Amino acid sequence: MENLRHYYDVVYKITMLTGAWPYLKPTARILRVGLVTLTIITIFIPQIAYQFTCKSNLQCTFESMTSYLLTIVALIKVYTIQLNNYKMKDLTQHLVVDWKTEKTPEQLKIMKLYANTSRQLCLIYVAYVLSGVIIFFSLPLVPFILDVMWPLNQSRPVISPYPGYYFVDTREYFFKIFWHSIISWEIIFTAVVAHDCLLMTYVEHICSMFTMVGLDYESLFSNCDKAMEITNNYKEICRKKVVLLVHAHKEALRLVELLENTFSIPFAIQMLLAIIGMSVTLLQITQQNDIIKSCRYTLYVVGQLIHLFWFSFEGQKLIDHSLQMSDKIYNSSWYEVSASSQKLIILVMMRSTRPSVLSAGKIFIFSLESFTTVRPLEITECTFYRDSLMRLRFSSVRRPCKPRCRTSRSSQPFSVSCLWIRRHFAALIERAGPTCLNAITIIHLR
């Protein structure tokens, strides 16, 4: 139990704080989740109000979209844990039972190694997210600092902490809005971190299970040789050990499947919203002349990419650990055991050739290879409007058209009215400059 308190103290405290701990009392869970939900609502209402103030201003609409999409993602993460609490209990109980079960020194060393890795990753992730929120929402203070250090004839424009309309004068009530934003977003992102750290802890524990089973397979046959020297029923001893290892491997696969069934659909929604948000933000960066806003948009995109990389990294570890089982069995002396044991081992080897994965809706597999494909797709979304409208300049104003967004990966029609596009996008595209055009050229060359 001392190991549990030490290695899982970070994830335990943060999930208890946000109501995500599976064994939290119902009353405490309702109060804490209710507080997080209420905080999200206090942020979401100003975001929607700001959206209505944009009216036909497309740039304002895009700016508002990146904000409330992030809020929706946070809400999905919070209620993914709550609606699947019984599954979280199953995963957590298995983790606790594994630590209480008697282990060999080698197995205990492996469990400590992976538990320590998950603890360090959680600490880094918590520090990165919560400090990033403070930095991001502190950038609007720069005009006030500049007004004090290098004053102008008139005050510099006020930048809202996030795209939200509070039905009051922003300059007059800036600091009240600022502190509400900082505190609310810290609470929201604490809940996000609790979701991500809990998932990370489960993945690391499953990887330790794969490693322990692989180590046991490697050492199994040498132990059988020793048993053969001592007793005559060594075949029966080896067969029982093989059965136990097959069961342990099957249990690890069951936990992977449980994780996949729990998080696949929520991840698909999150990925869709994140890609839309990053695409819109990249388009906004090409239109911005304000340095502070450009820095905030850049931080937003970098944060989303780091968030995606984090899950891709964990997904890649899960793939690698599930595939290495076959290699470890193959490199051992599996051919020296009885025929009945060999049949069981061959089944394990055949199953190990198929990787265990985490996915978003069975479409996007979280791996480092998949992560590298996101960037060109994001550039394509960023340049879509310019690419389409450049062709529309040679078409009739009233005639309906079907421009196509072409990349090396996709070619999908986008039916719209030319008149509507020209009216709302023309000014935006003219100011896009050569950046997007260069990106289109790169993608087409690919």
UniProtKB/TrEMBL annotation:
The keyword Lipid metabolism does not apply. GO terms for molecular function: odorant binding; olfactory receptor activity. InterPro entries: 7tm6_olfct_rcpt (IPR004117). One of its GO terms (cellular component) is plasma membrane. It is found in: Cell membrane. It is a multi-pass membrane protein. The chain crosses the membrane at residues 31-53, 65-81, 121-146, 263-285. It comes from the Eukaryota. One of its GO terms (biological process) is signal transduction. Keywords: Cell membrane, Membrane, Olfaction, Receptor, Sensory transduction, Transducer, Transmembrane, Transmembrane helix. Belongs to the insect chemoreceptor superfamily. Heteromeric odorant receptor channel (TC 1.A.69) family. This is Odorant receptor. It comes from Cardiocondyla obscurior. The lineage of its organism: Eukaryota, Metazoa, Ecdysozoa, Arthropoda, Hexapoda.
